Prior knowledge:
The structure holds two protein chains of two kinds.
Chain A: H1 2-25, H2 33-41, H3 48-82, H4 94-107, H5 114-136, H6 145-169, H7 171-180, H8 190-217, H9 221-226, H10 231-253, H11 257-271, H12 275-300, H13 308-326
Helix pairs in contact in A: 1-3, 1-12, 3-8, 3-10, 3-11, 3-12, 4-5, 4-6, 4-7, 5-6, 5-10, 6-7, 8-10, 8-12, 11-12, 11-13, 12-13
Chain B: H1 2-8, E1 14-18, E2 21-25, H2 27-49, H3 57-64, H4 70-104, H5 117-132, H6 136-157, H7 165-189, H8 192-203, H9 211-238, H10 242-247, H11 252-274, H12 280-292, H13 299-319, H14 328-352
Antiparallel strand pairs in B: 1-2
Helix pairs in contact in B: 2-4, 2-13, 3-4, 4-9, 4-11, 4-12, 4-13, 5-6, 5-7, 5-8, 6-7, 6-11, 7-8, 9-11, 12-13, 12-14, 13-14
Amino acid sequence: MRGRRSVGLVAVVVLLAVVCILSLTVGSKPIPLHVVLDELWHRGDQSDDGIVIWSLRMPRTALGIAVGISLGLAGALMQSLTRNPLADPGLLGVNAGAAAAVVAAIGILGLTSPSAYIWFALLGAAIASVTVYLLGSRGNSAATPVRLALAGAAISAVLGAFVSAIVLTDQQAFDSFRFWSVGALAGQPASVLWGTGPFMAVGAVLALALARPLNALALGDDAGRALGARLGRTRAVSVISVTLLCGAATAAAGPIGFVGLTVPHIARAITGPDQRWIFPYSALLAPILLLGSDVLGRVVARPGELEVGIVTAFVGAPVFIGLVRRRRLVQI
Amino acid sequence: MTSMAAARSARPKRIFTLGSFHIRVEPRALTVALVLLVLTVVVLVISLTTGDYPISPIDVVRTLLGDGTAIQHFIVETLRLPRAILAMVVGAALGIGGAIFQSVSRNPLGSPDIIGFDAGAATGAVVVLLVLHGSQAATSLGALIGGVGTALAVYLLAMKRGVQGYRLILVGIGIAAMLTSVNSYLLTRAKVTEAQQAAVWLTGSLNGRGWEQVRPVCVALVVLVPLACMLGRSLRMLELGDDTAGMLGVPAEGIRLASIVVGVGLAATATAAAGPIGFVALAAPQITRRLTRAPGPNVLVSAICGALLLSASDLVAQRVLPSTQLPVGIVTGVIGGIYLAWLLSREWRKRLG
């Protein structure tokens, strides 16, 4: 089993590399593979291809990888934290908080440039998830899965209502918001990645460190405690990690819900219930899905593009459903 | 939840016998139901009497008995009464639907959406509004076809030597995600004014609804509520897991299918009448659980709770911000969300103290 899982992990890395190359070559201006490789080796020449690769496709691909990893990890973390298969990273209110802050920025402050949304999205995500965590905790003990899920749903509903109220009464805000809310990797300058990347990196390190204690907690709170897991600390750090990962990803690319929800299920179907394998698999499978969908979105609607948030569900869902039907499922 | 069930089985219960029928009544649930019912009636009275043209309660009664002025007749019987009743029946339908789905999925986040119903209904409506440019009636029909069709598709896709609850949830997630993408695509490609109208429909609204929307929901409630009550007991067993339920003599598979049919039926009629009003289906059963302190779906109390939640929300939507014509779906999110959060925080303080 262990050997098979290691080989699988290598195969997934190779697949990710292939998708990255595709993401650099495919687009409204196709660039042959040897030109791409040539450009990657010696940067600097100011040919058209060089500019397209370095100033457009590189940042987009890098952003896709970073957002993908973040969403995959955040999803896996969230599902094992709440022990709920319906939990997506947005459940902590992260997406709703980000959306509410972005809508406030558009509708009340009149901001229009997507790069200015980032900080609002991050701030909104952080405030929302802290509120949810406090509500989900039970007095002086740690947050419990069911209460966390309910608190997240309650706060998301209130914030969602705020978003609707602004968006339905202000047509201009609605117009900007409907495009942000789909989720897209296109047109984001490299500065977006520099701004959000550090948050994602810290979140990812925390997430990987949590795999072992979460394994213990998967047996139930009491058994977990008996095995030496620290309930309160594990849950609190998980929430911080999810907020960093999902908040930064949402700030960078808009709310892309499907990836974080389904990729961990796919990873679990491949690896079994061990979080130490689920986390790396989720972190690698998610960018494959995201970037692959992004590439597909550039091809199917030429000369225009389909936003990645729209394509992921169509690429991922059939695979996901096929998997769910075929395998004996590992329940959370 | 199951350990709570065991711990509380010792609470007092009363059995009422009526011929060969035995009705088990839990005193606390009964009290909660009565209080919620009284509050609902209070909301009904307020929404009939207040507004731009205040009418005293006595005049309202006189009007209903056929003894008012023409303008009072118009205001009470054409404008206020159908809307207030619609809020109550739609809220009740959503409350029961939520209670059923939360038990079927054994998940507090369960709603008709786990079987793709909401996403499918939204797609049906958005296609009618943005692609076919249909009327309001056509939109309702589109939502109905989309929702029921999707639910059927999810159930069939999840079928493989029987439908396991867990697989049903996952297939539902996948299908719902695809349909949500279709909705986003249509909403971003449409003209902004049309897209905004579609967004209003997707929030759920009672604006401009009348008796023709009330009747089908009432018929659905009359047919489906008794079925839901009959299923309630078996559903409580089902929450213990398929195997345990089977040992207790409850056919898990059949009960699940019957519950899904009843739940989707209720959600479908409610959605056709008022659009996919958010959060009532999720909040009503959860609030009920916390108020009655009982495990398992309490179908009738959830229904009353849903009715109260939606009528109160619609009253706020109409009276507090009369100029904006806010869709009621926004207010249910705020009121339901804050109330649920308050309930959670109250438990929080209790444990702390």
